[in-house]
Amino acid sequence: MSYNVAVCVKPVPDPKHYDKVTIDPVKKTITRTGIPTLVNPVDKSAIEAGLQLREHYGGSVIVVSMAPPNADEILREVLAMGADEAYLLSDRAFGGADTLATSYTLYHGLKKIEAAKGYSFDFILCGSESADGATAQVSSQLGEWLGYPHLWNVFELEGTPGKEGGGEKETFSMKTKMENGYMEWTAHIPLVLGVAREIRKPRFTSIMGIMKAKNKPLTVWGRADLDAAEDTYLGLKGSPTQPGEIFSPDLKRSGELFTGTPEAIVGRVVTVLRSNGVVIGG
Amino acid sequence: MSKKIWVHAEVVDDKIANVAFELLSKAHELAAAMGDGTEVEATLVGSGLEKEAARLAEWGAKTIYLADDPDLRMYSPLTFVPILAEVAATHRPDIYLFGATAIGSALGPAVAARLKTGTAAHCVDLRINEDKKLVALVPSFGGKVIGEILCPAQNPQMASIKPGIFTKKDPVPVPLRIEKLDSSVWKKLDTQGLKPVNVVRRPPQGLPLNEAEVVVCGGFGIGSQENWQLLEKLAQYLGGATACTRPAVDEGWSGEHCMVGTSGQSIRPKVYIGFGISGATHHICGMNESGIVISVNRDEEAPIFEVSDVRIVADVNSILPLLLDAVKPKASW
Asked: Rounded CA gap, B107 and B75, in Å?
């Protein structure tokens, strides 16, 4: 049995540079000048999981992203990893979306791809959270729009074949992260999974992969293409949450520099610890 | 009808998780700010929880909506989401709070999607504005930016909050009032597609990180597994716990269970001692509520120093062994 896999990805500003993010004091907008955009890191693990499902069972891996038009570069990168096709959902009407509106747009994108392909997706994979917004809400909400079972923070996924000829479906065993442990699950397709980076280690992109990616289909769809979607749930207007003020928290402490020999420094640290109620040498 | 603030009380190993009481404490603060006799209530889903429900009343949950069934002992989105969405649609709370735990982070937004309402994730604070609406403060870009999120036109206004963000205050007991939910709600559900099998706990050795008054934290600058052992020992000598940053997890010295920051835990110990930590915003976001912050890093430009009370510009190797020696328990003979 082969599986059709959709992987939802998000272009994000490189998390290594979040120290450079500032707020424009006049316009009250976030300035991220000079910070490169890349594929949300954990989304690469989702793609890898999709590619390995395809390698093991056959089928397809299709990448979907709701993003500004210039995200096509990022999608080429993902295609170079080995995905078959990419769809970019891009329109001003989608802008300013919160997680409910984002998941709604992705839902309609997926439905439209399914209609075009004449099949249904068996797995819809997302990274567990984005590096920038980090709400971790999209996979669960996408699962609800689709009406499919959904799990978040999945770090293991293994298939067990159903009985030969018995018409029994393959069972997938999964583990999700929990505080101080994990939870085990069994499931059948279709599934929506928000995956943790431990699920699979993303492969490196080969030169061959980059060459091939140039000729892979990358389709851009706008508002008009998602004809079944209702305006009530799209973009900023369709988002139940609305942003208010933004600010940079001032966490600065007027720290004292301890200098001198290591022995002298350690002596002062012990004094600080004692004066803060730490019992030492007891 | 008076307004209502709901808290979903998560159950861990058949006990109500601490975060529920933290959220109830905050809910009372919000209720006072909303005025007009705003009530605090709770939802509870699991198996054999009538006794546990009494603890929610001790913490001021006036009504406890309880779905109690052996079938509900383990979390599944196929049961918990429709149960909570239905009870919320019936009783229409104004605000509904979830712990941003492993389960709550999946459950909260799914319930919000069913109710077509908004939810703010991983809030660092909540308040009520002049329009009596919930304002959630949400970090983004690893905590570099804090944004207000409102849900002005829909109810419930939902939010998730990590354990340890709010402080569990004194209990405000009310008479126990349980409203049992009708099992027909979940008995009719098709749960074939996904089944919870087991919960495996691997409790870390020693003191839980969020209860420790002293936290010794190590980053990439720790440099080796051997130094990590010294760090563990230091925490032990000081009666505290060890924590780490993402690079220390990547190096394999420590595990994600004790990682502090936006994608890990939020801590507020009396004393935080950081070794070889550069101070990425992701990490600072999880430790800036600490009482006193002592940092050791050989790079004087390290951002961690900006948020430190004591700055020590030195190699970890020159300080850690000496400090360990200085705080070593004295032999008792």
From this structure: 9
